[in-house]
Amino acid sequence: MGEETEIGVVIPGTIAILGGGFIFCTLLLAGLPPLSGFIAKFAIIDALFDDVIIEPAAWILIALIILSGLATLIAMTRAGIDLLWTPGEDSPARLSVIEVAPIGVLLAACLALMVGAGPLYRYMEATAAALADRSSYIDIVRSAPRAGEDPS
After folding, report:
1. Which residue, of 5, 77, 96, 150, has the greatest Cβ tally within 10 A?
2. pLDDT tens-digit profile of 4-56?
3. Is 30 exposed, middle or buried (0-12, 13-18, 19+ CB in 10 A)?
4. Closest by alpha carbon to 80, among 1, 38, 21, 32?
């Protein structure tokens, strides 16, 4: 547990680093704006709104997407409280830079995805359109040399 001071309890550095990373990951998984989890949910909901008349099944899917974010937020918050913020009998182990660096790199990658969401979203839309175009795929497969044939 932290040291007692005149102001209150001091949070150990290990718990502060792991707790901050855990909170950030919780918000990512829950899909809260403006993080990358929200961008993915927004893309799905935006695609459901492309039709003029939205089917009841689409409304159900939208509600499930929003409720899944709420359920994730509640579950991860409870897990974080149990694992990180409930005082333990032993003092937390000290973290070294080699243990914290991968966490920082992954969280920085998530922030980069959030900042570069526009170009990434356009790239993913172009990829989905290319995958939906079956004729170009069929032409490439038909023009490929058969097994055992000379490719020239």
Report:
1. 77
2. 555 655 667 777 888 888 888 888 888 888 777 888 888 888 888 887 788 89
3. buried
4. 21
Q: Which two tokens stand for residue 17?
A: 């680093």
Burial of 28 (0-12, 13-18, 19+ CB in 10 A): buried
- 126 located within any domain: no
Residue 101 belongs to domain spanning: 13-116
Q: What angle do CA 45, 50, 56 make, to 5 degrees?
A: 65
Considering Cα of 18, then 20, then 26, then 29, what sign does the dihedral take? Answer: negative
pTM over 0.85: no
Would you say residue 121 lies in a domain?
no
Q: Which residue has the tokens 């008349």?
A: 53
For residue 4, list its beta bridge partners.
Answer: 9
